[in-house]
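Handout, tutorial session.
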Amino acid sequence: MNIPSNLKYTKDHEWIKIEDDIATIGITDFAQSELGDIVYVDVDTLDETVEIEAVFGSVEAVKTVSDLFMPLTGEIIELNEALEDDPELVNTDPYEAGWMIKVKIPDLSQINNLLDAEAYQALIKS
């Protein structure tokens, strides 16, 4: 299971990469493997400010649909448009090409509530 140490994580299996006040968000390798083959990613919250733990979109796999939960309060400023034609990028490259949204974060102290790689590893092994 791939869990990059330079990222932050949530208990809902999202990963977060922080660069200045922009967070890039996707789902973890563990999450995509549990979901199976992803056929559609739906995010209709572009240019909206979404509160922490609110649903910002969904992922549809062959057998299920799963909500995506916002790990940080912020404004969604960009969607990964490549996922429209190639949603399977979430399966094949969840931490790079399979990212889902970019969010402008007004309050960086929120990052302190996220899990580091070690804590996330412990969560999925329990």
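The second record follows below. Compare its token runs with those of the first.
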Amino acid sequence: MSEVQVKESGGGGKNKQKKQTLRVDFTPMVDMNMLLITFFMFCTTLLKPQTMNINMPSNEKSDTEDGSDVKASGAITLLLAGDDQLYYYEGMPKDEKTGEDHYDDPNFLHVSSYDPNGIEEYLIKRNVGTYEQIQELKVQLQNQEIPDSIFRQKSKEIYDKAKEGSRTPPTVMIKPTDFSSYKNLVDVLDEMLVTNIGAYAVIDITDGDRYLLYKKTNDGKYLTPEQVAQGK
């Protein structure tokens, strides 16, 4: 409510102006604000933050002396290079048992891409069997046939069963370089989910990996200052 000035006619034909205090009552607006807040709370979709779990490689040992054979058979290393280039190699560049060293072999490092027919297609082939089972669970989850808790439980059972089988499931190690972009890392992490990789980790690139990139690309920018000083 508000009050305004009121004019009054007095004697002699002169108008007299009666001044009154202007007062605005905002009490009804409080109720209106509460109604609007309640309306938007019920009508606005509350978005849950999307998170991504990064599974670290297992440290469990196999039936061999130190389990390195099993790790090497399932190990895949992705090197995120500059200019949206992606490289990978299988196993370990240097075998401590046999002494075999692949750091001087540029063919040990394979060229791939972020396209569906690149690293995605390769990882699906390496994860055959497990990939199809997890995909079926994803369809059931999407159709609301199973809750998220059951999806996670059954997924873990599938991964554990794959580890016990004769075919070693892939363990992917992601190593970004200083010249890769944030988008490259996000794209690779998306591929881990798309291809249903059970164990993967983002770790620092080693000097050996830098040397492999140098041998493959002949680009000295991947070398450390110490490696450049040593003439590598």
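Points raised in discussion: Confidence is low (pLDDT under 50) at residues 47-70.
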